[in-house]
């Protein structure tokens, strides 16, 4: 419908997003929905400043009942600020918000919840020690609790979402996916008319994410307006009715999936074409075997895992969340105790009972939870960078400042780390740049083995591409690299081969000729035997 | 809050704006200290006399020395409730040993005993991963018990050999009492360790995010153990000074001192959640407590009322120092 209505979109995107404004605004175009619906939420000209910095420069956003409206943009584009304003967390400095055709002002999140606007947060806001039922009704518990009634009401809500979760279960014992269901049930219990999802699938494996998308679709079918923030563009294209792209606190455009592809979206978000998001392999030969894992086992989490890894190779570990991928990485790194199995480095058995030994042996781990395990947020970039190997920057226990600073600056430069300076706290960085600090830490250690667990989780498109380039460089420099990821395309684009895990076991191996979502999933679920038995050694293309 | 702001800004450049909360956090203790000094001088003409100031400093030295150890422990997100009791054990032990051994050997043994108390607490906390609050509470009870056992419940006279201790504890160099000099030396060394060494940096980092430090290959338990050992040894040292002041080793010395010591560290701006705190501010925290006690004495506030006032003042000081994170409105 839109295609004939103006200049061709992709080619028209140039340096200035202003180009898009005249045609990209939804107003004046036929609605996507069959019956035009009035806007449930209409935000116009929203402005927000933090200190001297304009985070929102007059952004428009509207939402109809029963629609899924995606909000896209790189980290720092202003999506979260925009939704912070809508959910009452932040007070706008300018602009108006209309809810059901009445102007509203939210002084606190409570005000927004009262009219029916709920936000499902990226980092979930549940009390892990309370039961499912208690969490769902936390804000509205009666003075006297009837456990029976509470649980029954909770069960009804959960079943409405198509799940069977015990309302008496402790939330902390649930999987991340189920916790998310509880969050949604909580929103529904308060009769939400608008639900904002902030990167809900970032922490979910493909199958769980699929389920969540189904729920979102059902929510919208039942008349709830859904705002959907995500970095997974394929997902967004599938689920959204409309998509609004923001960049640098400004409005870039609102488009429909019908006439927009992933590349168009990336171009809108980044302002430049990103044809080679995943970077390109730097041609190099594989070296000798560096790491050999034999019959690695630990409880029920990891069962009899064996594989080898050569210098210069990028090995993928795929599978669903909870399949034992992270646990294997942690066992190799000595972060957890193994029950059985040997790990050989360069042909010699390595002890690796705690991370100190692994670091000494030259194994680096970029852990999956960046903020909790990767960086010390309160401390400076400088301190974070040298933490794993302080010997070169100390003498007799005393820190040699000049040398440390120089080391950090050099690493920061080589990783294109965007920072105010090495003394800035890690918390001042965006997710992508925090991840680069973790990478810098291990480049400073400069060992032969690098394990990256979900290296691009919650990282925006621009930084993602840079991290891929860094990973290719690590391999080209002769390091043996293991990449764990729930984004299958990422694994396929990066890795020389992919090992697929399921229920703690190695279920099979994919070589590049077999790379496909279907193959990976069927191995992970364990329905079919490995489609390829031949590949013990790496096949390189 | 700061975090959400960061992610919603376009650049990775921190705001170029004076952050009042941060500035106050850094200088808040100093401001409180100055205000208290001004109040003190108004309250009593006797306050700013050399004799009184010397007195305040000397009375602060015990708590001050213990607060250095406590600062290290609190930086790792721990707590050490045993310092008062270990100090009493030190007081009794030094009076007991000095009758048989040379003063140097006696003091050495006492410091070792204090370190051993810290070792017991430290091993359970660092390696067995038991809660510091409970473990140091257990050590607190045991150390006080040992102090009573060794002294048979009576004060031990340090005797003629103890004269050395008394000379030190009541002596002066450059017009400054020797225990105060010792305290300042302890603070200076701690400041150097905390700010210029690998050890100090990792202690702070462990308090901020232990898991990230562990996954950097740092042997975290070693560092955690070390801070409890340091705290124990310094507590014993403060006991030695207590004995030196009076010439008597008493098992009742430093009763309840752990609370004052924790208060000093917290008034000094350290976070009980770990990772944040400094040596200079801790010294100020200890001095603030000392000055307040002194003012109340000068103003003839009765002893029991002093306790109430002290509690209120600690509350207000911490509120001013740490309560800048905004008021929470419930609904």
UniProtKB/TrEMBL annotation, chain B:
Q: Which GO terms describe its molecular function?
A: transmembrane transporter activity
User: Where is this gene product found?
Assistant: Cell membrane
Q: Does Zinc count among this protein's keywords?
A: no
Topology relative to the lipid bilayer, per the entry, is:
Multi-pass membrane protein
Q: Which residues form a coiled coil?
A: none
Q: Which GO terms describe its cellular component?
A: plasma membrane
**UniProt main location, coarse:** membrane
Q: Which UniProt keywords apply?
A: Cell inner membrane, Cell membrane, Membrane, Transmembrane, Transmembrane helix, Transport
Top-level taxon of the source organism: Bacteria
What single Pfam family name could you report for this chain, choosing any that match? BPD_transp_2
Q: Which residues cross the membrane?
A: 24-44, 56-74, 81-99, 105-125, 171-194, 223-242, 248-267, 279-298, 304-321
Query: PANTHER family this protein is in?
Result: ABC TRANSPORTER PERMEASE PROTEIN YPHD-RELATED, ABC TRANSPORTER PERMEASE PROTEIN YPHD-RELATED-RELATED
In Swiss-Prot or TrEMBL terms, this protein is called ABC transporter permease
**Taxonomically, what lineage is the organism?**
Bacteria, Pseudomonadati, Pseudomonadota, Alphaproteobacteria, Hyphomicrobiales
């Amino acid at each position: 419908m839109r295609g004939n209505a103006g200049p061709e979109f992709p080619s028209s995107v140039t340096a200035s997003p202003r180009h898009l404004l005249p045609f990209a605004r939804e107003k004046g175009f036929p609605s996507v929905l069959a019956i035009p619906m009035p806007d449930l939420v209409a935000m116009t000209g929203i402005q927000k400043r933090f200190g001297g910095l304009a985070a929102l420069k007059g952004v428009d956003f509207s939402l109809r009942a029963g629609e899924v409206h995606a909000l896209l943009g790189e980290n720092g584009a202003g999506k979260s600020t925009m939704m912070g304003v809508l959910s009452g967390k932040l007070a706008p400095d300018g602009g108006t918000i209309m809810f059901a055709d009445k102007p509203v002002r939210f002084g606190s999140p409570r005000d927004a919840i009262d009219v029916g606007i709920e936000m499902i947060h990226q980092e979930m806001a549940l009390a892990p020690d309370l039961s499912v039922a208690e969490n769902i009704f936390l804000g509205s518990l009666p003075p006297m609790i009837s456990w029976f009634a509470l649980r029954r009401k909770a069960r009804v809500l959960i079943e409405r979402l198509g799940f069977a979760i015990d309302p008496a279960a402790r939330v902390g014992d649930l999987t991340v996916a189920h916790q998310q269901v509880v969050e949604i049930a909580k929103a529904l219990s308060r009769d939400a008319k608008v639900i904002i999802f902030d990167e809900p699938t970032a922490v979910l494996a493909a199958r769980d994410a699929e389920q969540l998308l189904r729920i979102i679709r059902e929510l919208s079918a039942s008349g709830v307006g859904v705002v959907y923030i995500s970095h997974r563009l394929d997902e967004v294209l599938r689920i959204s009715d409309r998509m609004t792209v923001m960049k640098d606190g400004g409005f870039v455009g609102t488009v429909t999936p019908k006439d927009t592809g992933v590349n168009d979206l990336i171009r809108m978000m980044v302002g430049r074409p990103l044809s080679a998001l995943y970077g390109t392999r730097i041609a190099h030969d594989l070296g000798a075997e560096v790491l050999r894992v034999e019959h690695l086992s630990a409880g029920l989490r990891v069962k009899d895992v064996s594989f080898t890894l050569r210098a210069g190779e990028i090995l993928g570990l795929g599978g669903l969340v909870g399949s034992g991928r992270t646990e294997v990485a942690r066992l190799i790194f000595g972060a957890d105790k193994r029950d059985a199995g040997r790990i050989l480095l360069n042909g010699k058995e390595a002890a690796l009972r705690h991370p100190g030994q692994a670091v000494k042996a030259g194994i680096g781990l970029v852990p999956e939870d960046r903020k909790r395990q990767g960086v010390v947020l309160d401390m400076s970039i400088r301190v974070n960078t040298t933490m794993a190997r302080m010997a070169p920057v100390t003498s007799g226990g005393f820190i040699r400042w000049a040398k440390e600073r120089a080391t950090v600056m050099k690493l920061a430069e080589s990783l294109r780390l965007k920072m105010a300076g090495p003394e800035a706290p890690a918390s001042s960085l965006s997710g992508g740049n925090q991840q680069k600090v973790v990478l810098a830490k291990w480049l400073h250690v400069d060992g032969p083995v690098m394990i990256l667990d979900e290296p691009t989780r919650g990282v925006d498109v621009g930084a993602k591409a840079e991290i891929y380039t860094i990973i290719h460089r690590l391999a080209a420099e002769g390091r043996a690299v293991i990449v764990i990821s729930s984004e299958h395309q990422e694994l396929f684009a990066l890795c020389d081969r992919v090992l697929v895990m399921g229920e703690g076991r190695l279920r099979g191996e994919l070589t590049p000729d077999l790379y496909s979502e279907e193959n990976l999933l069927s191995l992970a679920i364990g329905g079919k035997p490995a489609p390829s038995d031949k590949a013990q050694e790496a096949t390189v293309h | 809050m700061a975090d959400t702001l960061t992610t919603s800004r376009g650049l990775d450049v921190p705001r170029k704006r004076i952050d009042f909360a941060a500035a106050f956090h850094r200088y808040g203790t100093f401001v409180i200290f100055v205000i208290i000094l001004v109040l003190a001088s108004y309250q009593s003409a006797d306050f700013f006399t050399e004799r009184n100031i010397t007195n305040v400093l000397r009375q602060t030295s015990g708590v001050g020395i213990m607060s250095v150890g406590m600062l290290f422990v609190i930086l790792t997100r721990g707590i050490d409730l045993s310092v008062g009791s270990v100090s009493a054990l030190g007081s009794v032990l030094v009076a007991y040993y000095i009758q048989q051994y040379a003063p140097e050997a006696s003091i050495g043994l006492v410091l070792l005993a204090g370190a051993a108390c810290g070792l017991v607490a430290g091993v359970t906390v660092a390696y067995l991963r038991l809660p510091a609050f409970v473990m140091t509470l257990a050590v607190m009870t045991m150390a006080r018990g040992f102090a009573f056992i060794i002294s048979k419940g009576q004060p031990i006279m340090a005797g003629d050999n103890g004269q050395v201790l008394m000379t030190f504890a009541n002596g002066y160099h450059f017009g400054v009492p020797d225990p105060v000099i010792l305290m300042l030396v302890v603070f200076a060394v701690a400041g150097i360790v905390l700010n210029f060494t690998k050890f100090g940096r990792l202690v702070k980092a462990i308090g901020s995010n232990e898991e990230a430090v562990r996954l950097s290959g740092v042997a975290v338990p070693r560092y955690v153990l070390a801070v409890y050992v340091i705290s124990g040894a310094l507590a014993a040292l403060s006991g030695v000074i207590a004995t030196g002041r009076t010439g008597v080793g008493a098992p009742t010395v430093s009763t309840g001192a752990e609370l004052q010591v924790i208060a000093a560290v917290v008034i000094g701006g350290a976070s009980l959640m770990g990772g944040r705190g400094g040596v200079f501010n801790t010294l100020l925290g200890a001095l603030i407590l000392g000055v307040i006690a002194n003012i109340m004495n000068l103003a003839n506030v009765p002893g029991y009322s002093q306790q109430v006032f002290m509690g209120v003042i600690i509350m207000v000081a911490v509120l001013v120092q740490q309560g800048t994170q905004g008021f929470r409105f419930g609904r």
